[in-house]
Amino acid sequence: MKSLKDIRHALSKHLGKTVTLTAYEPRNVVVEHTGTLSSVYPSVFVIDIDQDLTPKSVGRVSYNYSDILTGYIELQVD
Questions:
Q1: Own/partner pairs for 41-49, CB < 8 Å, 24+ apart?
Q2: Residue 21 DSSP SS3
Q3: What is the distance between the terminal CA atoms of the chain, rounded to a whole angstrom?
Q4: pLDDT tens across 12-38, in order?
Q5: Is there a smaller number of Cβ atoms within 10 Å at the N or the C end of the chain?
């Protein structure tokens, strides 16, 4: 199992790249966003959502590294 530090370091290598984020929310709701990994901070990372691909979504989302560790979200780098 990876640590939060390992996840943050791996994400920092992909800054500016297109990613696909899948979030598993309560009540069996699955949300998918495609965008650019814009920022990596000590506690969170930020993805700017591509409005052309997902027009009804918000412009920017942020998540904790622990969300990846626990499986709440999945990231795929394109």
A1: 42/8, 45/8, 45/11, 47/19, 47/21
A2: strand
A3: 23
A4: 999 999 999 999 989 999 988 899 999
A5: N
